[in-house]
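Q&A log
Question type: sequence-to-structure
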Amino acid sequence: MTVHRVPAQIGLPGTEQSSVALPPVALPPVPPVTPPAVLPVLIADVPAPSAMELERPRLHDALHRLSDGEVRAGEVRAGEVRAGEVRASEVRCVGLWAAAGSGKTTLLAAWARRLQRAGEPVTWVRAPMSGQVRPADVWRQVGEVRQVGEGALASGVSGDGVTRYVFIDELDRAEADRPGLLGELVRSAPGGIRLVVAGRTSPGVGVTRLRAAGALVDVPPADLAFDRTELTALAARQRVLLTEEETTILLQRTAGWVTGLALILPFLRGSDDPARLVRDFDGDHPAVSGFLRSEVIAGWADGDETTLLRAAVTAVIPVDLAVAVTKRADAGAVLDRLAGPGALIVRESRVETAGYRIHPVLLAHLQAEAWRRDAVAAAAAHETAARWFERRSDGTDALEQALAARSPGLVDEMLDTVGVDLVLRGTPDLVLRALAEPAALAENSGSPVAATLRLLLDAPYFPDRGRAGHLLAGLTAPLPTGAGTDARAVVIEALTAFSAVTSDEIRNGLAGLLAARNAPGRRADLGVDLLAATAEAWCRAGLGEAAQAEAGLRMVTVAARNAGYTWLFLLAGDLAATAAARRGDWARAGLIDDQLALATDAQAHPASGAGTSVPGVPVDRAAARAWVALQIRRYERCEPIDPSVLERLVRADPMVADSGLTVPAQALLALSALAADPRPRSELESLNRLLRENAVAQPRVLSLCCIPWFDLTGALDGRAEARRVTHLVEAVLGADSLEVVLLRSIAYPPARGRHGAGGALEAAATLASRCWRGSTLVSAWIVLAGIAEENARPAEADARLVRALRLAEQLRVERVFLAAGGLGVVLLVARIGRLGDLDGFASRILTLAGRSPGETRPAQAPVARLTERERELLRELPFHQSVADIARKHNVSPNTVKTHLRNIYQKLEATDRARAVVIAHERGLL
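Response status: OK
Response body:
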């Protein structure tokens, strides 16, 4: 086969404004090509629209550039073309090179129809099956032929200044017989011709300088993949409604590969269980496998296919790993030979090693086929890969390969080696999956490794203490005296300390940890050492040594974050915030909260994998903890939160195994629902169950919820039940906590006109007060302002409200003004415009009062209209006036006012005056 070199002169006729001038280069003699006696008909109709055709504006850029002839800065690169060779150029050709089934023909046809609708001349050329067809033959049939030498062969419209678009699909078939065909086509194209070509493999001859000059622009193969928006639109056109999780699964399994999506969507439309069909779909689906065998694998040599079946143990295959699993020194050469967009394998360079990435559709097919052909060899390949990754300290891939090998013994071995490290680094998903494997449950149920990891995943809260005690007893019983010389023994000491309840147990746990401080297993592993230090701080907090506990936890947070132990960093940070709150330092606790909230990118999605809506499917708990901490801060600031992600986190942990994550998520869901529906019975029941069962382990969550919980209980179940809430809060947070003093002031309001009303609350509401969240201090001053207002002390009410506003502005906790029946909102309404520099902040709070912190509030159901008299009386409610005062003002009896107020409350679905004012503001009645 003769390879033609790039001609020295690339002529781009038909444009006087731009040209490519390259110095002449001698060409080797080209054997004469005898054209066939009868030329095949190359011109065809543009293909009819397919079911997969979709408007894809993000791909129109290349077509626009072709029509504009635009060469962008930087596309003509120094070093590829010598100085002076390129004076000016224009885009003459767009190429799409991608694997079979990527949607190239569909996209080309859509572009052609788009141009036709715009009135542009378009010609569709059927790619010649043989390279014996010359470019001149193509242009003759198109109707234009370039001038050759001094004479013109023929020209129907040559030189008429009209731009004509010529589309050629599957050009690579002709390029195989005639290398350099695309370069010849571009060079010989008559003036005004714009080429759009496609094929499975990019031409390797005759196009380098065209690309360097900007005359040829390639659309990256990855751009052809469907994205989330396009998949959702395509499914809707085929009358398939995909959930968010199903969309994510399909995109992960197919990487947006068009044929894979085209094959699965019809099955979904007729399926009784589309969710299960989506979860089971991958490259081993019969329809997909058939396509891959015929269109991709059929061109491989038998030896190459066997090599790739062994090498395809992971998506990215380093060459060294390929050599190890295939036992072939030339495995890298085989992969390189098969690589290319048309083979769904691409070369990928990484810092540490070169490798090859296999498309997920092809990978799933190859792995399933390897097990079908030789299960023993497939298992051995995965075991070799597991040990290869283990030697390189890549715990995630090592455990992944052990699971793929389907060997419980190998899984247990890898869990022993890397399991603790994976949990501490915040990537426990694989560990959870390994522990949930049926084989692991059957063969390794009594394994000390599995028991240790199950306990670690539940630490430090241990929602199922019976199970935790049973597992710990099994772990500690066989340990000899003085054990603690290996890492697992130190981990067991830490778990024992976390599980301690009584003072004696806590002291014993602390003593065991202190005795193991210099143990080799602790000193040799930084993660284990930091875990033990966290357990020591946990014990000191349990013994009332809050300052020492907080100091130890601060050390752990710094070291853990620097070393990449994300889960441990977040756990220690949360415990440090709790320790700070226990000793009354709410400012320090708030600062730590902000640090935790910023620990994970706000845009990061904490739910890993696509199936997190399925109970029991793990999540990235480290990212999720930081994300929930961020959502709590957003909730306190009346900023939007994402209930859908919270719901997935809760569904992923139905047994509340990780209460430090799931309880705050559940609480935030309930609080968000309260904003959308002021009196939801279901949310009260949820709060009752959640807080009564988990408040002891999560005191800061109780502090966040205590006022809304108290309000809702009083509104739906009466004051007596609300007072029981106060007793529970007192038992958990302490009788001297500001939360309890505040709730007592609300539950047992002082008699009106009583001198010194609210004195106990005012004495407790200082910057040195012992409270679990800074927002509680703001709430206290709002309630104090309400007490002063109720007792006709307007100047004192003003001063207290201003103090609450300043604190809220500093702490960014606007939501507290909406609590306590909207008392803060009522007080602000009566004073807006005379709060000085705080007027802007107060106006923001009033604006936020009608918004939900989560999703947009659903439209209000039709409500009964207020009469004119009821509207008049409603306008009196924001001001401090008694019923008698209002009656005198309107010349009616107090009973008449009471009747109208009852009607107002009923129509607004309000429980009291404060709530009626808030609802009236929300509905624009005030």
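Response note: The CA atoms of residues 5 and 27 lie 7 Å apart.
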